[in-house]
Amino acid sequence: MFTIREKDSGNFIGQCALLPIEFTNGNYLIGYQIDDTQWRKGYGSAACEFLVYYGFEVLDAFRLTGDCAEGNIGSEKAMIKAGFQPEGRQKRYWIKNGKWYNKLHFGLINEDISEEKMEMLRKTYNKT
Ligand SMILES: CC(C)(COP(=O)(O)OP(=O)(O)OC[C@H]1O[C@@H](n2cnc3c(N)ncnc32)[C@H](O)[C@@H]1OP(=O)(O)O)[C@@H](O)C(=O)NCCC(=O)NCCS
What we know:
Bound molecules: coenzyme A
Strand content: 35-45%
Oligomer: single chain
Number of strands: 6
CATH superfamily: Gcn5-related N-acetyltransferase (GNAT)
Order of helices and strands: EEEHEHEEH
């Protein structure tokens, strides 16, 4: 799990994480949440892209898995821009305050990300 902070001020922006999926090695569930004062500034997209870098480059994942509620446009766009493929939709997966939400599934296989893209991610996120 990572905490996201603004580079100069150190102000809290949000969190993101890669969680191992049980019964296998190398498949991780991604997650991110950005403080609502910081939405729509590109942080969610950057967090998702960082998780792709960390998952494939550092954890040597073979697959990254993601999901979101249908209608969570910010999350869906962040995953699609990072290269995730839509993998299906489960109807009426969650209920909150009497409202039903469908669940959208996404996945990214290590072989489906180009070496050019990985090189770009290394240049952006590997500061060591
Ligand atoms: C989902 C979430 C991470 C998006 O973070 P963000 O920092 O606002 O995302 P970005 O600024 O990178 O936006 C990504 C894209 O979605 C769009 N977008 C973001 N929120 C949107 C909204 N409410 N309605 C429509 N479009 C939206 C942005 O304009 C951007 O579009 P672009 O790529 O065409 O420029 C953030 O809203 C959040 O933390 N939500 C609560 C927790 C959550 O839902 N986490 C994900 C669970 S799967």
